Amino acid sequence: MVDEEKEDYIDSQKEILNRRISFWLSFFLAVVITWWYYALNPPDSTEMRKMRLFFKNNIMEVAKFIRLPNDELQGFADSKSHPFYQTYLKSSEVEKEKINALIHISRDYSPNQYWFNVVFL
C-alpha cells in the first residue's frame, strides 16, 4: 500500500514536471518564432502603408487602370492627379509585376494587419 502511494506520488511529480517543461518549451518556441517572423518581415514603411491604403480605397479604379491596353494607359493616367499613375507608366516590367502583386494583396489591407500577423501567427 505504501509502495503504491509512493509510486503514485512519483508519477504525479513526473507529470507536473512534464507539464511545466512542456509549457515553458512552448512559450520559448512561440517567442523565438515570433521574433524570427518579425526579423524576416519588417513593418511596412510609411510610404508603403499610404500606397496600400490608396490601393484599398481606390481598388476599382486602380484595377481598371492596370488592365487597360498599353495605348490607353497614358490617357487614363493624364486624367488622374495621383502620382501612382505616372510612376506606374515609367516603371519597368519587373516593377509593374511587383506593383500588380501589391495591388492584389492590398484589397483587404488594414494598417494593423502586420501586428495582427505577428501576434496571432
Question: How would you briefly describe this protein structure?
Answer:
The chain crosses the membrane at residues 21-40. This protein has seven helices and no strands.
In one word, what is the shape?
rod-shaped
What structural category arises from helix and sheet content?
A: mainly alpha
N-to-C SSE series? HHHHHHH
Number of discrete helical segments = 7
Number of strands: 0
Gap from first CA to last CA:
50 Å
Please estimate the helix content.
over 70%
**Stretches where pLDDT falls below 50 for ≥5 residues?**
none
What is the total domain count? 2
| Main beta-sheet strand count, sense and barrel state | none
Q: Overview of this structure, please?
A:
Keywords: Membrane, Transmembrane, Transmembrane helix. With about 120 residues, this protein is mostly helical. The protein folds into two domains: about 1-40; about 45-110, no CATH class. About 80% of the residues lie in helices and about 0% in strands. It is built from seven helices and no strands. It has helices spanning about 1-40, 45-55, 60-65, 70-80, 85-90, 95-105, 115-120. It starts with a helix and ends with a helix. The relative contact order is 0.11. The model has no long low-confidence stretch (mean pLDDT about 85).
Properties at a glance:
121 residues, mainly alpha, 2 domains, 7 helices, 82% helix, 0% strand, transmembrane helix, transmembrane, membrane
